């Protein structure tokens, strides 16, 4: 009942957040639910306290403004001013502190290493044998399993936050921080960098795709494979443009000559759900737009705008990248 | 006349110097406990993350600190002497009032130190991980 009310208020206040894909009011993981309940308890507790203190104030100044007996006044100060807050705050601490443990535990499931760059996410899935599958700007998780997230950053501080799935954690250069998620329903949830990290901080988002475990296994197996060679004539030409323009000095496309590490791994770019760290879709026009206007779309980005490329070259590149399934 | 007053003041001051020191003891325990908890946690978590021993140590240290603070608080409470004379303020400039006022201050500081020490220990005792 309360939950519904608060959610309703949230929906009314935040109509722009579309189906709660990036909302703490739409908890879709064990950890987000925990935080949601915690926030609810604290909020209702604060409300009760506020009404109590306000009511008392009105009572002694308006309703019954008589001089109090010494005993009553002393009792109020010692009881209401010392004992009550100490016991209440102590109770809240004892209730909330143990709850903070689970979201930080490693979990029995997989581990994913996420490194924040300016302004995108390097994502590496650790396989049981210790090897890693590299991806970027998208996190895929199996539903119903606790996946550990090992967070790090390159050069400046960022923060990792997927509101619908769990808490927030700072990402600090040279220091690993941890978070873990236990998603409870399949779906796509938006994450956002939550610590100012430079000019394009606001444009540093990503999608988290929560999948059924068997779908996830299939996806991970596909992600681990090298890139599919171009299937069409257009895409083949795109691969040539990619090589000619030197894109491979910054990007890796596994199974090709492209082994750059400066930008996101593009091996399976075509199977992702967003482009440029969550700011564009993955249709051919999106690819062309991104490649030709990178610096307009993302101020101070490390990738140059390839606005000298002909529309034909851009279309070919888009076909190549879209075909990297 | 003035000479006598000065002598009395000096005598009184000497006897009060001890309880002046006393009022700092409880906050001092709080400060040491705080620094020890944070320092030990940082060290253990940076080295091997063996939190069980750490939590036991913090638990024991907290117990000792709390017992000491309760004892100091009890001493101060008696010095304040509230129950007998019902004098909350001790606002006369007399030697007795001065003595009792210092007891009052020490008692309140012991109370706040007790709360401080308890709250500092709670995270260590309730969260069993360095993360
Ligand atoms: Cu940022």
From TrEMBL, chain B:
The chain crosses the membrane at residues 20-44, 56-77, 105-127. It comes from the Bacteria. Keywords: Membrane, Transmembrane, Transmembrane helix. This is Uncharacterized protein. The lineage of its organism: Bacteria, Pseudomonadati, Pseudomonadota, Alphaproteobacteria, Rhodobacterales.
């Amino acid at each position: 009942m309360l939950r519904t009310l608060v959610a309703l208020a949230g929906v009314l206040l935040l109509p722009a957040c579309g189906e709660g894909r990036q909302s703490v009011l739409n908890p879709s993981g064990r950890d987000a639910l925990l935080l949601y309940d915690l926030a609810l308890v604290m909020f209702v507790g604060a409300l009760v306290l506020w009404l109590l203190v306000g009511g008392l104030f009105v009572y002694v100044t308006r309703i019954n403004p008589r001089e109090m007996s010494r005993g009553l006044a002393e009792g109020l100060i010692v009881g209401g001013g010392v004992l009550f807050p100490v016991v209440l705050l102590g109770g809240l601490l004892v209730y909330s502190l143990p709850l903070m443990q689970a979201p930080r535990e490693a979990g029995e499931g997989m581990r994913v290493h996420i490194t924040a760059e300016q302004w995108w996410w390097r994502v590496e899935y650790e396989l049981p044998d210790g090897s890693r599958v590299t991806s970027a700007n998208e996190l895929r998780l199996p539903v119903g399993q606790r996946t550990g997230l090992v967070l790090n950053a390159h050069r400046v501080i960022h923060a990792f936050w997927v509101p619908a799935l769990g808490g927030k954690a700072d990402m600090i250069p040279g220091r690993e921080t941890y978070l873990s998620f236990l998603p409870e329903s399949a779906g796509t949830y938006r994450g956002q960098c939550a610590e100012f990290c430079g000019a394009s901080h606001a444009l540093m988002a990503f999608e988290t795709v929560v999948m059924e475990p068997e779908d996830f296994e299939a996806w991970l197996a596909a992600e681990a494979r090298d890139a599919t060679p171009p299937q069409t004539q257009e895409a083949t030409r795109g691969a040539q443009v990619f090589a000619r323009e030197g894109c491979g000095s910054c990007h890796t496309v596994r199974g090709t000559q492209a082994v750059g590490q400066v930008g996101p791994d593009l091996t399976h770019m075509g199977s992702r759900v967003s482009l440029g760290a969550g700011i564009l879709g993955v249709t051919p026009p999106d690819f062309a737009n991104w490649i030709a206007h990178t610096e307009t779309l993302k101020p101070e980005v490390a990738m140059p705008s390839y606005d000298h490329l002909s529309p034909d070259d851009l279309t070919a590149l888009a076909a190549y990248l879209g075909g990297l399934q | 006349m003035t000479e006598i007053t000065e002598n009395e003041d000096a005598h009184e001051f000497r006897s009060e110097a001890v309880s002046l020191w006393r009022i700092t003891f409880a906050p001092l325990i709080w400060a040491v406990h705080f620094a020890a908890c944070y320092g030990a946690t940082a060290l253990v978590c940076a080295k091997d993350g063996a939190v069980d021993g750490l939590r036991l140590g913090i638990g024991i240290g907290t117990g000792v600190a709390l017992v000491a603070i309760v004892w100091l608080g009890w001493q101060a409470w008696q010095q304040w002497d509230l129950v007998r004379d019902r004098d909350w303020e001790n606002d006369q400039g007399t030697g007795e009032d001065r003595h009792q006022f210092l007891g009052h201050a020490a008692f309140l500081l012991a109370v706040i130190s007790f709360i401080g020490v308890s709250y500092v220990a709670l995270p260590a005792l309730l969260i069993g991980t360095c993360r």
